[in-house]
Amino acid sequence: MTLVLGGARSGKSRYAEGLIELRPGPWRYVATAQAWDDEMRARIAEHRARRPAPWETVDAPRDLAQAIRQGPRGQPVLVDCLTLWLTNAMLDEAADLAAEVDALVEACRGAAGPLVLVSNEVGFGIVPENALARRFRDEAGRLHQRLAAIADRVVLVVAGLPMIVKGDAE
């Protein structure tokens, strides 16, 4: 399992796609984004255009653990991205966010094939001014720590350049 972190437009998704494409296809892309507006629809379209066959896209804005568990044995899986999933869960006012995170961590531990997770590193900025944004930053930080602890590799992408934080380079 590889956890790929980075800021917005850092190149983390392209880097993660490249990691998956080092393995034989078909590849599974688990998308967590929801097209709430035109800008988000354009972002989703851009990501999809980069992934021709043999990529298979599975939309999982909420039940990410199940989408990971459903992957066929040995199939490389890319999840993009964890912070959008966390946003979806928080905006849905998940009854038990901690239980959903636990289920996600367990699904990652039991993944049936290579797994690459993409997420935004949001903890480098200033302290947000409102309680929801502070809670999101804190929940994302805790999620990243839990996943980094079980990951074989953690990579921070800055300006398109991968920096290995944990494990070996692919």
From TrEMBL:
Keywords, in A-Z order: ATP-binding, Cobalamin biosynthesis, GTP-binding, Kinase, Nucleotide-binding, Nucleotidyltransferase, Transferase
Matches recorded under SUPFAM superfamilies: P-loop containing nucleoside triphosphate hydrolases
Protein's job: Catalyzes ATP-dependent phosphorylation of adenosylcobinamide and addition of GMP to adenosylcobinamide phosphate.
GO molecular function: adenosylcobinamide kinase activity; ATP binding; cobinamide phosphate guanylyltransferase activity; GTP binding
Superkingdom, taxonomy of origin: Bacteria
Pathway: Cofactor biosynthesis; adenosylcobalamin biosynthesis; adenosylcobalamin from cob(II)yrinate a,c-diamide: step 5/7; Cofactor biosynthesis; adenosylcobalamin biosynthesis; adenosylcobalamin from cob(II)yrinate a,c-diamide: step 6/7
Gene Ontology terms: biological process: cobalamin biosynthetic process
Catalytic activity: adenosylcob(III)inamide + ATP = adenosylcob(III)inamide phosphate + ADP + H(+); adenosylcob(III)inamide phosphate + GTP + H(+) = adenosylcob(III)inamide-GDP + diphosphate; adenosylcob(III)inamide + GTP = adenosylcob(III)inamide phosphate + GDP + H(+)
Family, similarity comment: Belongs to the CobU/CobP family.
The protein's name in its UniProt record: Bifunctional adenosylcobalamin biosynthesis protein
Binding site for GTP: 6-13, 31-33, 48-51, 80
Active site: 47 (gmp-histidine intermediate)
One Pfam family this sequence matches: CobU
